[in-house]
Amino acid sequence: MKTYIVGNWKMNFTVGESSLYLHKLLGKIHSYRDIEVVVAPSLMALQSLSLQTDRRKIKLACQNFYYKDFGAYTGEVSVAQLRSLVDYAIVGHSERRYIFNETDKDIKMKVASALRGGLTPILCVGETESERTFGETVDVIRDQLLGGLSDVAKEDVSKVIVAYEPVWAISGHGKPARVASPLDVADALKIIRNILKETFGPKIASETPLLFGGSVRSLNAESYLSIGDCNGLLIGGASLIAPEFTDIIEIAKRVKNDRNY
Ligand code: PGA
Question: Which CATH class is domain 3-260?
Answer without folding.
Answer: alpha beta
